[in-house]
Automatic annotation (TrEMBL):
Lineage: Eukaryota, Metazoa, Chordata, Craniata, Vertebrata
Single GO BP term: regulation of intracellular pH
MF-aspect GO terms: monoatomic anion transmembrane transporter activity; sodium:bicarbonate symporter activity; solute:inorganic anion antiporter activity
Keywords: Cell membrane, Ion transport, Membrane, Sodium, Sodium transport, Symport, Transmembrane, Transmembrane helix, Transport
Organism, scientific name: Steatornis caripensis (Oilbird)
Protein name as annotated: Anion exchange protein
């Protein structure tokens, strides 16, 4: 097993050795290179269990003519035998390993008599498949070795051995699309991302074992492991092995004792130089020419070309335009793709609901000086302009919590000091735009490289938390508004009632007088005039309260269906979208259908539950969208005159709150862009 360094099973098979530097033979590395050249390479395989993985590998080998179809059962049977680990006393030895984010397990079937690997054949229809379970065993969960592993570690398993039914080696290197728990295959319950399988004909067990150690050592090497994660084809992996061979140092035989284990160094040399050399970052230098430099601080964005400061006026902007221009057209025609459609629909729903929600909150905070329609229009116009001209158009513009807080404070400040809020807000906007232009002209974006991963994660958490908090807050408010009657008993249904009665008991005898007006006419009449002629029993709740009536009865406070139904829709939509998102790795339908369902998970679940809501017909609260295109408040127009409402010095003083807005926008926008730009998102355009 490997975590950065190799550990071997000590004699007797009871315990692991101390970690030591893996010493490989050069021959095994060249043999491994040949294996990668000739074997099956399957990258981003979509599978969720070991039987599925093995079946796909075997089918691939048969298709490409590397394996005879009559050997399919035997190979499958061999690969799915139950895996035992060295801690359990057994004549089946296994070296399982887990790496830095990686692991490798070289597995051998050892015969106790002569110590050479051997394979026993039982009836092929035996329960070999039942030996494999996706769930980790008890021993795995108890294993203290788990504490040594970093969080989110992924394993790579190496399975090597010899069998008597193959004439040529069976070789496969697999990278799974998503890391999957393969049950007892790994020593500890870590999801597997890579598999290397080598089954060969009898007589070369030592050679196979060394090839297994070679790929395991490569997978625990930082540079090769990065290449393995990002490789697009066989050539990338071969290039990775060649890069490793460039760095390897050979010790001549007879001048050192291979049995001596080399202790790991106290401080590891940085692999940055190797990474740069591999990506063509500097002129290649041969082994040992220059010492390794130390690693960089900061958030790991320092080597991005985008974040280098030019020191010239608008230098960064000009470089950005030059970098972006070649991709401008492709940004449009790349979107002619079914996956882009799911993203467009999802972003549309996310921004529309957000604009309406925040528009409502903004209306409450500013007495409708800015409301739903202003929020809508702002999101639409800025969103469109931003997508067309932004350096990183994958950032989606929308109202956020911090901006709402700012608007509320500003409105209250204007009210307390008798300022014209909209004019004040206009000047803050103009100053803020000017300050943002200064930031662009001075290349201030280079400061982003000092953001650490901690800052990014904190910021992501804050944004997520605001949305989650708002969702729950809305649901709790709803439960408050439409409480559930916990005392309700079906048997007492005859006791429940709610009626509208006039407040004045003297006139109550006259309430079904001669004139009965239709409800809409009552709305425009004065209660005093028609007090004697209202048919109180036919009024709605709102009408009853409007005409000074009172609701009498023990069921007036309850509309239980609404809260219950809203919670069903709330949790149902979430659960359904999560389930459909994971559908990609399920066993139903062909791959294309699964991928499509997974891509459209959120849209599908929203549509399903909107349909359920419409079918059931309970009057659940809906988003209130304005029906006509006009400013929310009748006191304002679309155009705001910049002068006349406030003293002259306010226009200059607006620069101070504008600075706060600029900082807020800068942080918000830049951190989001940095999160989008992370290496793991594998963006092709910077």
């Amino acid at each position: 097993r490997w975590i950065k360094f190799e550990e071997k099973v000590e004699q007797g098979g009871e315990r692991w050795s101390k970690p030591h530097v893996a010493t490989l033979s050069l021959h095994s590395l060249f043999e491994l290179r040949t294996c990668i050249e000739k074997g099956s390479i399957i990258l981003d395989m979509e599978a969720s269990s070991l039987p599925q993985v093995v079946e796909m590998i075997v089918d691939n080998q048969i298709e490409t003519g590397l394996l005879k179809s009559e050997l399919k059962d035997k190979v499958t049977y061999t690969l799915l035998r139950k895996h035992r680990h060295q801690t359990k006393k057994s004549n089946l030895r296994s070296l399982a390993d887990i790496g830095k984010t990686v692991s490798s397990a070289s597995r051998m079937f050892t015969n106790p008599d002569n110590g050479s690997p051997a394979m026993a054949h039982r009836n092929l229809t035996s329960t070999s498949l039942n030996d494999i379970s996706d769930k980790p065993e008890k021993d795995q969960l108890k294993n203290k070795f788990m504490k040594k592993l970093p969080r989110d570690a992924e394993a790579s398993n190496v399975l090597v051995g010899e069998v008597d039914f193959l004439e040529s080696p069976f070789i496969a290197f697999v990278r799974l699309q998503q890391a999957v728990m393969l049950g007892a295959l790994t020593e500890v319950p870590v999801p597997t991302r890579f598999l290397f399988i080598l089954l060969g004909p009898k007589g070369k067990a030592k050679s196979y074992h060394e090839i297994g150690r070679a790929i395991a050592t490569l997978m625990s090497d930082e540079v090769f492991h990065d290449i393995a994660y990002k490789a697009k084809d066989r050539q990338d992996l071969i290039a990775g092995i060649d890069e490793f061979l460039d760095e390897v140092i050979v010790l001549p035989p007879g001048e050192w004792d291979p049995a001596i284990r080399i202790e790991p160094p106290k401080s590891l040399p940085s692999s940055d130089k190797r990474k740069n050399m591999y990506s063509g970052g500097e002129n290649l230098q041969m082994n040992g020419d220059t010492p390794h430099d130390g690693g960089h601080g900061g958030g790991g964005h320092g080597d991005c070309e985008e974040l280098q400061r030019t020191g010239r006026f608008c230098g960064g902007l000009i470089k950005d335009i030059k970098r972006k221009a070649p991709f401008f057209a492709s940004d449009f025609y790349d979107a002619l793709n079914i996956q882009a459609l799911s993203a467009i629909l999802f972003i549309y729903l996310a921004t529309v609901t957000n604009a309406i929600t925040f528009g409502g909150l903004l209306g409450d905070a500013t007495e409708n000086m800015q409301g739903v329609l202003e929020s809508f229009l702002g999101t639409a116009v800025t969103g469109a302009v931003f997508c067309l001209f932004a350096g990183q158009p994958l950032t989606i513009l929308s109202s956020t919590g911090p901006v709402l807080v700012f608007e509320r404070l500003l409105f209250n400040f204007s009210k307390d000091n008798d300022f014209d809020y909209l004019e004040f807000r206009l000047w803050i906007g103009l100053w803020s735009a000017f300050q943002c232009l200064i930031l662009v002209a001075t290349d201030a974006s280079f400061l982003v490289k000092y953001f650490t991963r901690f800052t990014e994660e904190g910021f992501s958490s804050l944004i997520s938390f605001i949305f989650i908090y708002d969702a729950f807050k809305k649901m709790i408010k709803l439960a408050d508004h439409y409480p559930i009657n916990s005392e309700f008993k079906v048997d007492y249904i005859t006791h429940y009632s709610c009626a509208c009665e006039p407040f004045d008991p003297v006139n109550s005898s006259l309430f079904n007088g001669t004139t009965v007006l239709p409800a809409d006419e009552l709305f425009h009449s004065s209660p005093e005039k028609y007090n004697t002629t209202i048919d109180w029993s036919s009024l709605t709740t709102k009408e009853c309260l409007k005409y000074g009536g009172q609701l009498v009865g023990n069921n007036c406070d309850y509309v239980p269906d609404i809260t219950l139904m809203s919670f069903i829709l709330f949790l149902g939509t979430y659960t359904c979208s999560m389930a459909l998102k994971k559908f990609k790795t399920s066993r139903y339908f062909p791959t294309t259908a699964r991928k499509l369902i997974s891509d459209f998970a959120i849209i599908l679940s929203i549509l399903i539950f909107c349909g359920i809501d419409a079918l059931v017909g309970v009057d659940t609260p809906k988003l209130i969208v304005p029906s006509e295109f006009k400013p929310t408040s009748p006191e304002r127009g679309w155009f705001i005159p910049p002068f006349g409402g406030n003293p002259w010095w306010v226009y200059l003083a607006a620069a101070i709150p504008a600075l706060l807005v600029t900082i807020l926008i800068f942080m918000d926008q830049q951190i989001t862009a940095v999160i989008v730009n992370r290496k793991e998102h594998k963006l092709k355009v910077g």
